[in-house]
Design goal:
By secondary structure, the chain is an alpha+beta fold. The protein has a domain of 70 residues. The protein has nine helices and 17 strands. The strands form five sheets. It has a six-stranded mixed β-sheet. Strands 3, 6, 9, 15 and 16 form a five-stranded mixed β-sheet that branches. About 7% of the residues have low confidence.
């Protein structure tokens, strides 16, 4: 066991002791024989772990630089953590390295703190003190890299179109989270001695809870055999991108809320199957107009939400359509709905192909959504739980890497409606469907 693994087991034993004694105290009774037996067994195990801890400290090389995680001190491993090497060890049935075990221990502690159980082969925390992985010989390159506290996987926000739009991203959440929402205070005129009206606005809250988001990537065993920094970074980048794309597809998608499974998409009410059925505004029919675009902004402004991080988001097809529609009804101005610098009426228009082309009554439209993206909150619990499956694609010499993570997303100003009319992004966002 590594020092971090030993400390982690000690923490669990202390927690179990506290649970037993606090329960007896709350019930106003003495400990039962079974509880006493458990406490004595835990104390014996704690003494064994103390001896193991001293042994591991003695095994550490003299002069090793000491690192800390919380109140745990351990020798800095000479070997840097490599996800490629760790996956290869799992595929080949070998044991994990000590540095990998330490990373997993930190990752599991983070998941436990967030209230989520991890069950994968590889558990990566949100952040870890590590160095960049360098190619080179055993005695050159790897040992001279300064370490920094950063994420093992590339930061998720860097992969999301929402980061460009200015959405609110909150990692490291613990348990269910409630964000207060307030409709505002009303003010009214009155005569000199007239009574003041009750101006209190409505208080509510937006509830967030960890929902499992899973994605996977398939890699060849030949790729996993690579030791270069380029292959390692490509694998890490692909994992972060897979999670980001799945998250984008959900938030910008047409699906309804599924309790305890996934949040609804912003485009939910545009889908005819979900009680929306907004007719596609067709370029051919001349109905994609400047007025329709400005109408999205007016809808947000009518709710006093035209502030903050304002932007449009659509997909590549939507961008192409908007760049070919003239603002004038006679198509004679030479000025198009989207300018050459990807602006619409002074607001940026961002593009992601996570938006599908299945919107509107005809099921072939492309969503264009406008809103205050600061009112979109994306919460994350824990890090990344990874399972390596070397069997499902064995016939094609590939390995499937399954990533589990926990997120939730909603509009911070609350939702309106219920069931078939539910809109979790009301007030701050407005959307329409366009097609050729």
């Amino acid at each position: 066991m590594t020092i971090l693994e030993i400390q982690d087991e000690k923490t669990k034993l202390f927690d179990a002791k506290t649970d037993i004694t606090e329960k007896a105290k709350a019930e106003g009774r003495a400990l039962t024989d079974t509880e006493m037996g458990t406490l004595h067994a835990n104390l014996r195990r704690l003494k064994e772990l103390d001896l193991e801890m001293e042994t591991e400290k003695l095994r550490a090389d003299e002069g090793s630089e000491v690192r800390s995680f919380g109140n745990v001190h351990y020798a800095k491993p000479r070997e840097k953590f490599s996800l490629m090497k760790t996956i290869r060890s799992r595929v080949e049935g070998q044991g994990f390295s000590d540095v990998a075990k330490d990373v997993f221990t930190i990752g599991r502690q983070e998941f436990r703190k967030s209230g989520v159980n991890s069950a994968g082969d590889i558990v990566i925390p949100s952040y870890y003190e590590r160095a960049d992985i360098l190619a080179g010989t055993a005695a050159a390159g790897q040992e001279i890299v300064s370490e920094d506290k950063k994420s093992i996987l590339p930061p998720l926000v860097d992969k999301l179109v929402f980061s460009q739009a200015g959405a609110t991203f909150m990692p490291g959440l613990v348990g269910n989270v409630s964000i207060p929402s307030y409709s505002g205070t009303a003010v009214a005129w009155a005569t000199e001695v007239g009574p003041a009206a009750d101006g209190a606005g409505a208080h509510s809250e937006v509830n967030f809870s960890p929902l499992r988001l899973t994605a996977y990537i398939d890699v060849s065993k030949l790729f996993l055999a690579q030791d270069g920094v380029g292959a390692e970074r490509l694998l890490l980048d692909n994992i972060a991108t897979a999670v980001a794309r799945q998250l984008e597809k959900t938030i910008l998608g047409p699906a309804t809320l599924v309790a305890n499974t996934q949040p609804s998409g912003i485009g939910y009410k545009l889908n005819v199957a979900n009680g929306g059925g907004v007719a596609e505004l067709s370029v051919a029919g001349g109905t994609v107009t400047w007025g329709a675009m400005v109408g999205l902004e007016s809808s947000i402004d009518a709710s006093n939400a035209l502030q903050g991080n304002l932007a449009y988001i659509t997909n590549a097809v939507g961008r192409g359509l908007l760049k070919t529609v003239d603002k004038g009804t006679a198509n004679d101005t030479g000025d198009y709905l989207m300018s050459e610098d990807n602006m619409i009426n002074g607001y940026p228009c961002l593009v992601t192909n996570s938006i599908v082309s299945t919107y509107g009554a005809g099921g072939a439209g492309n969503m264009v959504v406008f809103g205050n993206w600061a009112d979109l909150m994306i919460g994350q619990w824990g890090g990344y739980d990874i399972t390596v499956d070397p069997y499902s694609l064995a016939s094609t010499n590939q390995v499937r890497i399954v990533i589990n993570s926990y997120f939730d997303a909603k509009g911070l100003r609350g939702s309106t409606g219920a069931n078939a009319t539910l809109d979790q992004y009301a007030i701050s966002f407005a959307a329409l469907s366009i097609t050729a």
